[in-house]
Write a structure and sequence with these properties.
The structure holds two protein chains of two kinds.
Chain A (H helix, E strand, L loop, with lengths): L5 E10 L2 E10 L21 E5 L5 E6 L3 H20 L2 H17 L1 H10 L4 H21 L3 H5 L1 E2 L6 E9 L2 E5 L7 H12 L3 E5 L6 H11 L8 E4 L3 H10 L5 E4 L4 H11 L5 E4 L10 H5 L2 E9 L11
Parallel strand pairs in A: 7-8, 7-10, 8-9, 10-11
Antiparallel strand pairs in A: 1-2, 3-4, 5-6, 6-12
Helix pairs in contact in A: 2-4, 3-4, 4-6, 8-9
Chain B lengths: L11 H4 L17 E2 L1 E3 L2 E3 L6 E5 L6 E6 L3 H20 L2 H17 L1 H12 L3 H22 L12 E3 L2 E5 L5 H14 L3 E5 L6 H12 L7 E3 L4 H9 L5 E5 L2 H10 L6 E5 L5 E4 L5 H13 L11 E5 L3 H13 L19 H16 L3 E4 L14 E4 L6 H4 L6 E7 L2 H9 L6 E5 L3 H10 L4 E4 L18 E2 L12 E3 L1
Parallel strand pairs in B: 1-5, 7-8, 7-10, 8-9, 10-11, 12-13, 12-17, 13-16, 15-16, 17-18
Antiparallel strand pairs in B: 2-3, 4-5, 6-20, 11-19, 14-15
Classes of the chains: A alpha/beta, B alpha/beta.
């Protein structure tokens, strides 16, 4: 278990009905890091855990070692949430993403502390939190704009009105960047949900703290339960299930492990999952093309009545 | 007592007899043998083997085409690789002009191409002449114009070609699919190795002649014939950068697996089981035309065919009656006859597949109705067939038949039919018929399919993106969106 760090902090004692500051040792309340499924924070059904450590080998926390069953539960939650989330007004989705950014901004100190624990310098941690907040705002703005950029009205030769628009692919399984605790996570989740998909995310194994805390941010941001589900655990163990689940429509993977990529493609062939591979993106990148990676193009046709004499040439 | 049937029936057959109106075979010359089109020349296959291409309407042999081995594929890929360097660096406007040339020459040889398409594949000449060939020409014409305009298509990105595209196409729209594949690949600066289906290779070989005549630089387009093993050799060739495949979902999955662990990109346009939904307020006579066009167009050999009909319960009986009447008027027979509506089944293999499903439908207890038309004594023909009283779980309502077989189910509410329509692993196309605009958009937004036709069906256009959701594949062909699968956007 992690160190019980006690700090010399002021506490109060009550003497004659008056609170009086005395110097004593206060026992710190430790946080239990759980997983996030369907808007709730359960422990893994498997009862298993692993210890997250910092570079020096100090224990940071006991993390849930999520199982295949946790993943399946999370997919059910994501599938149930997909209908409402994808049908939400784009403007509303934008406001909810903006709300996530607000909540994250409000908890900057906590994220900085966790990032520092996970071996970033204070300046790096500060920068990563700043970028993460700004990234959410960037994608919040795209929610009701990318459709216009990537849609088309198609000038077909026959007497039809014909247009093509992006629509979300569905449930997306995401293996979050393993070398980044917060910015990588935010950078892959934001475009997926901005486009109306729901997702199940496997957090960084080695740097999992921010993912669980980010789940708490999501939980207090008007993001409906099930839209984002976050698991902690081993990539090698869960990757096959992320890739072969028949009710997952797309998979996002961010590492450069050839064996993993091959396995993802082979297993995804079972139901022709869309495979989105980001090879070691340094997460400076943000663009609406990341949103489009998890979109389908739908084309709609309707006849135009063409029997009158008017040519509309007035 | 039996209900009296005193409705007026359409009686085209007895009221007016159609005299045979066959298109002239002599307007098209088919060579006795076709070699491989590699590096701008027709070359004998290294395999030294040939196979027959036959006319499914009569069983007669039309020609022989080369059977490419892996060594032939390698030769074609090498030619394409050599050509890629200069082709991708050619000024884009010049690249476009070559493609415009192809478009024009397809138009010039349209009649010949239509006749050969019908002879080789069994589709009615009316469809080859009025749909397949002109749409193919238009496709080349459309993408030709994109070649020097790519910087306008993808904001804030530079478009780079991928390299060599290996393209494998099906037998249902042989020339049109070749156009769908080749035109965007060339416009974006890629070079091509294309394999037509083994039962319908002839129009692709005519297209090779056109490409030669258009003076395309050698190796930019290579067309090689063969069966599944040739396709596999293309997919597995290490120097192919992109696979574009149209065909069955089963083969699509095999391809997806085969390219795992490589950097090959893919576009897969696969099977479908489209719902065609008729609401009670729909213009029923138009809807019946849409149903017929949806499932009997090209003998139902259409991946986006409207093979699952959903009719609102209140109009089920009248739609069924109108549909049966209309089916009785369809002329099934000689594909070369200009009056023919439904031609020959493309191959013995496909014929057996369709007959298998018809048996399954009967065994599952659904009610079958077939047109009483007389079928030609020779050749592969199946009369238009509909099954009513079909369960959602029935195999004929779940699996792609790829023939002139329609299943009919009823529904009561919008939500029910959306649920039923989406209850399939496929998601290529869908249709909805109603007079109410808001209902159209409720349905078209909720149906999980890449193409949705409202108050129409089976319409295609070079400017209109086409492709599936879910297990119907990924990537789009046609329109601006059809450029992206052939590009790296950097």
């Amino acid at each position: 278990m992690s160190k019980t760090i006690s700090k010399n902090i002021p506490a109060t004692t009550k003497t004659n009905g008056v609170h009086k500051m005395v110097s004593t040792k206060r026992l710190e309340v430790l946080k239990t890091y759980k997983i996030y499924i369907g808007g709730k924070f359960p422990r893994t059904e498997s009862g298993r855990y692993y210890i997250a450590e910092d570079n020096a080998g100090n224990n940071l926390a006991n993390m849930c070692l999520s199982s295949r069953k946790d993943f399946r539960e999370a997919v059910i939650a994501a599938r149930s949430a997909f209908g409402d989330w994808s049908a939400k007004a784009a403007n509303n989705r934008g406001q909810i993403l903006y709300r996530i950014a607000e909540m994250l901004e409000g908890r900057r100190a906590q994220f900085k502390e966790e990032l520092i624990k996970q071996n970033l310098s204070a300046a790096e941690a500060e920068n990563e939190v700043n970028l993460s907040v700004d990234r959410l705002i960037y994608y919040a703005g795209w929610c009701d704009k990318f459709q216009q950029v990537f849609s088309s009205v198609n000038p077909v030769a026959s007497s039809h009105f014909n247009f093509s628009t992006p629509e979300p692919t569905g449930v997306v399984s995401v293996i979050a960047p393993q070398n980044s605790s917060l910015l990588g996570l935010v950078s892959v989740i934001a475009p997926v949900i901005a486009g109306g998909n729901t997702c199940v995310v496997l957090a960084s194994f080695a740097k999992p703290l921010c993912a669980v805390t980010f789940a708490e941010v999501l939980n207090s941001s008007d993001v409906p339960g099930g839209v984002v589900n976050i698991l902690t655990g081993k990539v090698a163990e869960l990757l096959p299930y992320f890739a072969d689940h028949m009710d997952v429509n797309a998979i996002v993977y961010c590492e450069n492990n050839v064996a993993d990529k091959t396995l993802i493609k082979e297993k995804s062939a079972l139901n022709l999952k869309r495979v989105v591979l980001y090879d070691k993106q340094n997460w400076d990148a943000q663009s609406p093309y990341f949103i489009m990676d998890n979109q389908e193009i739908k084309t709609t046709w309707h006849p135009i009545e063409n029997i009158g004499g008017s040519k509309g040439s007035y | 007592m039996a209900k009296r049937d005193n409705t007026l029936k359409l009686k085209f057959d007895s009221a007016r007899k159609f005299a045979p109106a066959p298109e002239s075979r002599s307007a098209a010359k088919i060579k006795p043998k076709y070699d491989l089109f590699i590096n701008g020349k027709f070359e004998k296959p290294l395999s030294k083997k040939y196979f027959d291409s036959t006319n499914p309407a009569t069983g007669e042999k039309l020609s022989e085409v080369a059977d490419s081995s892996a060594a032939d594929v390698d030769k074609a890929v090498k030619a394409a690789r050599n050509a890629f360097n200069s082709w991708s660096k050619l000024p884009a406007a010049e690249r476009g002009k070559y493609i415009f040339r192809i478009a024009r020459m397809v138009q010039e040889r349209a009649r010949e191409l239509a006749i050969v398409e019908t002879l080789d594949g069994g589709k009615p000449i009316r469809e080859s002449r009025d749909f397949d060939v002109p749409t193919a020409a238009n496709h080349f014409f459309y993408y030709a114009g994109w070649a020097d305009k790519l910087e306008y298509a993808f904001p804030n990105r530079t478009a780079k070609p991928l390299g060599v595209a290996g393209q494998i196409i099906p037998w249902n729209f042989p020339l049109l699919m070749a156009a769908w594949k080749i035109a965007p690949a060339l416009a974006t600066g890629n070079t091509v190795v294309l394999k037509p289906a083994e039962t319908t290779p002839l129009t692709a070989m005519l297209l090779a002649e056109i490409i030669l005549e258009a003076d395309l630089p050698p190796g930019v387009v290579n067309i090689i014939t063969g069966a599944g093993s040739t396709g596999a050799a293309i997919v597995n060739h290490p120097d192919v950068n992109k696979i574009a495949f149209t065909g069955s979902t089963d083969v699509g999955k095999i391809i997806e697996k085969a390219i795992a662990g490589t950097d090959k990109k893919a576009t897969l346009e696969l099977g479908g089981k489209a719902a065609n939904i008729i609401f009670e307020d729909a213009p029923l006579d138009q809807a019946v035309e849409g149903i017929v066009n949806g499932i009997f167009f090209n003998q139902g050999h259409v991946c986006c065919a409207g093979s699952r009909l959903y009719v609102q319960e209140s109009v089920l009986e009248s739609v069924l009656r109108k549909l049966k009447d209309r089916i009785e008027t369809l002329i099934v027979g000689d594909p070369l006859d200009k009056n023919t509506d439904v031609g020959a089944i493309n191959s013995k293999q496909q014929y057996d597949q369709i007959m298998k499903y018809i048996k399954i439908g009967i065994n599952e207890g659904s009610d079958m109705f077939q047109s009483s038309c007389t079928l030609p004594s020779k050749g592969l023909y199946i009369p238009p067939t509909i099954f009513s009283n079909v369960a959602q779980s029935s195999r004929i309502a779940q699996e792609e038949i790829f023939g002139p077989v329609l299943t009919i189910q009823s529904f009561r509410t919008d939500d029910e039919v959306i649920e039923k329509a989406n209850n399939t692993p496929y998601g290529l196309s869908a249709g909805v018929w109603t007079d109410k605009g808001s209902k159209i958009f409720n349905l078209t937004t909720k149906l999980r399919a890449g193409v949705v036709w409202a108050n129409t069906f089976n319409k295609f256009d070079p400017t209109s993106p086409f492709g599936g959701y879910k297990e119907s594949g990924y990537g789009r062909e046609g329109g601006l969106h059809g450029l992206a699968p052939y590009l790296n956007l950097v």
